[in-house]
Amino acid sequence: MKKTIALGILALSLAGTASAQVKPEDQIKYRQAGYSFMAWNMGKIKANVEGEYNAQQVQAAANAIAAIAGSGMGALYGPGTDKAVGDRKTRVKPEFFQNMEDVGKLATDFNAAAANLAKVAATGDKAAVQKAFGETGATCKACHDKYRAD
Amino acid sequence: MKKTIALGILALSLAGTASAQVKPEDQIKYRQAGYSFMAWNMGKIKANVEGEYNAQQVQAAANAIAAIAGSGMGALYGPGTDKAVGDRKTRVKPEFFQNMEDVGKLATDFNAAAANLAKVAATGDKAAVQKAFGETGATCKACHDKYRAD
C-alpha cells in the first residue's frame, strides 16, 4: 500500500523535473487535451468490443491511452491550476489538491489498468480486452467521482 | 514510393473501420487534443535535450508522441471537418483534403519519425535523441507549412 502510494506520487511528479515552464492556463489545456484524446480512444475500443472487432485499431487505441497515462500528467496540476485561468475553465475540485496521497493512488491504479489494457490488446483477445477495458474505465470513474465536478 | 503512399493512406484510414460515429465538431476537437498533447511532450523533450537530461521523462514523452501519432488520427479528418463547426475552429487548409496522397506521405513520414524517436529515447542517448527529435519536428513542420493556416 505504502509502495503503491509512493509510486503514484512519483508518477504524478515525474514530469516536473527538467520540464519547460508551462503556464497554468497551458497546464489546464494540456491535461484536458490528454483526457480528451484518451476519451476518443476509449470510445473506439468500446465500439470494437460491442461490435465488429478490429484488433489493430484496438491495439493502437490502447497504446495511445497507456502512453498518455504514463506521460507524467501530474505535472499539469501545478500551482494556479485549481480554478479557471481566464477563459480556460477546469472541472477539477479543490479536494483534488488536498488529497494528493489518494490522488496518487488513483493515478497509479489508472496507469496500471491502462498498461494492462495495452498488454491485453496486443494479444487480440476480444473477451480479455473487454474485461481490461472495463477495469480501465473503472479507474477513470473512481477519480472523476471524487475529484471532477459535473 | 508507391508503397510509402499506400501505407500513409492506410494509416489515415485505419481508425475509420468499426469506429464509433464521431460528430465533425468532435473530430476537430479530438485531433486538436492529440496535437496539443504531442506539443506538450515535444516541449518536454526540447527542454531535456537543451538542459538537464532525464531519460525516463524523455522516454515517456516520446512514447506518448509515437502512440498518438500511430492511433489513426486520419479518421478525424472526415466529411464536414474542413472548416469551423459552430464554435469549433480549425486551421486546416482546404488543400489538405485535395491532396490526400501527399498528406498520406507526410503522415507516414511523421509516424516513422515518431516511432524512431521513441526507439532512440529508450536507449537514453541524449545526442541520438536530439537528432531524432529534430527529424520528428521537421516532419511536423512539413505538414504545417503546407496544410495549416497561420
UniProtKB/TrEMBL annotation, chains A, B:
UniProt-listed InterPro entries: Cyt_c/b562 (IPR010980), Cyt_c_II (IPR002321), Cyt_c_prime (IPR012127), Cyt_c_prime_subgr (IPR015984)
Binding site for heme c: C140, C143, H144
Description of post-translational modifications: Binds 1 heme group per subunit.
Gene Ontology MF: a single term: iron ion binding
GO cellular component: periplasmic space
Electron transport in keyword set: yes
Identification of the protein by name: Cytochrome C
Annotated organism of origin: Thauera propionica
